[in-house]
Amino acid sequence: DPHEEGMRRVFAVEHSGLAQSTLVYFPEVFTGVMERWPGPRRLAWSASELHARCAERRPTATLFTSGSVVHPAADLCVRLGATRVELFGADFALCGGRSHAPGAAWGRAVTAEEAGAWVLDVRGARVPSLPNLVGYLRDFERYLARHPEVEWVQRSRHGAAIACARSTEAA
After folding, report:
1. Are 145 and 163 in contact (CB under 8 A)?
2. Which helix (H) or strand (E) holds 76?
């Protein structure tokens, strides 16, 4: 997240384990994150035109992204050799009438009338969403379909059903 507000909560937690944790980041990350991160850091690129030009000068990994932070996180799991990935908070819907999970910096209330779109949850019920979230879901499902070697497990019962992911209907 290139905005300070979006990253403030990263540093509002206990940092003792971060010195051993690697931060994988896109170059747009808020500079304060880079200045304060105590552990190793690894640059990644997206497939955007801007990043492609930069990658010519500084080659490194390119992670899949299409609008959601879930995308590069899942791609990183695949690249690290994961055979099972559990998806928590990959809702692509307005769970509880909110645009983001509780506590997220950019979260806001959105009514079903304002949403403008809907998706089916794991039980087949319609849940409100936003057009951009529906697009992120579509692109994510296409990505998962390209990686059948990974067992994708959806742990939320409140968000959109994700094709190619097995649902456990966790709370």
Report:
1. yes
2. helix 70-79
At residue 165, the pLDDT reads 96
pTM for the model: 0.85
Q: Rg of the chain over CA atoms, in angstroms?
A: 17
Contact 99, 130 (CB under 8 A): yes
Residue-wise pLDDT for 40-90, tens only, equals 999 888 887 777 777 777 778 889 999 888 999 999 999 999 999 999 989
Do the Cβ atoms of 152 and 140 come closer than 8 Å? no
Which residues have C-beta within 8 Å of that of residue 93, sequence separation ≥ 6?
119, 121, 127, 128, 129, 133, 158, 159, 160
Determine contact, residues 148/127, Cβ cutoff 8 Å.
no
> 110: Cβ–Cβ under 8 A, 6 or more apart, which residues?
94, 97, 98, 99, 128, 130
How far apart CA 5 and CA 106 sit, in angstroms, is 8
Q: How far apart are CA 33 and CA 160, in angstroms?
A: 31
